Amino acid sequence: MREWATDVAARVLGKDAAPLLVQVTKDRDPDVRDLGIARLLEVDTKAAEAIVPLLRRKLRGPEFYDAVSAMWALAQLRNRAAIEDIREAGRVGREAGKAFQGIVADVVGDLLDGRENEIVASLEQHDHDRVSALAKAASLIGTPEALAALRSCAESAPDEDCRLACQERLRRVRTRG
After folding, report:
1. Which tens digit of pLDDT belongs to each residue from 22-58?
2. What are the tens digits of pLDDT across the range 118-146?
3. Is the dihedral of CA 23, 63, 93, 132 positive or negative?
4. Quick one: which of 127, 91, 96 has its CA closest to 109?
5. Computed over its alpha carbons, how large is the radius of gyration of the chain?
6. 154, 166 Cβ separation under 8 angstroms
7. Of 100, 110, 102, 37, whose CA–CA distance to 78 is shortest?
8. I need a surface site. Which of 9, 112, 118, 146 has the fewest CB within 10 A?
9. Which of 144, 142, 84, 143 is nearest to 108 (CA)?
10. Is 115 exposed, middle or buried (CB count within 10 Å of its CB: 0-12, 13-18, 19+)?
11. Which residues contact 145 (CB under 8 A, 6 or more apart)?
């Protein structure tokens, strides 16, 4: 029920739902919290600045998803102050056998460091192990060049998994655009 209410509030109230969504990010249920974070980022990135401390704590959480979702949220907020924490979460993830957490940390770190051209070039060159993260980063970059690389990947990546990852990112860009 709280998930449904969170979703409806964001859709119906838009930016006016921001104070409620900030509260939802403190819910006892992790699924409700995560939905609150996602919807807050969608409706009001300025208000989402209030949850940066929560996101930085999530980087150190025991769950793989916590760290990865926090990295992307901090990337969306362009929170450069979190770069070292993100890179550390990537290192810890790799040591625990969570390679994708390390890949996301590298890509998000590059995005926050302003290496957008390198991200786009890596996507264009089909850096296979990182395509999923690169596609998400390209969608956040949102420049014509980044979106062109995303389209190219969606249409002609050499393998289906990469094409599908890029197609999904494109779909989300179109939905939010």
Report:
1. 999 988 888 888 899 999 999 999 999 999 999 999 9
2. 999 999 999 999 999 999 999 999 999 99
3. negative
4. 91
5. 16
6. yes
7. 110
8. 118
9. 84
10. middle
11. 120
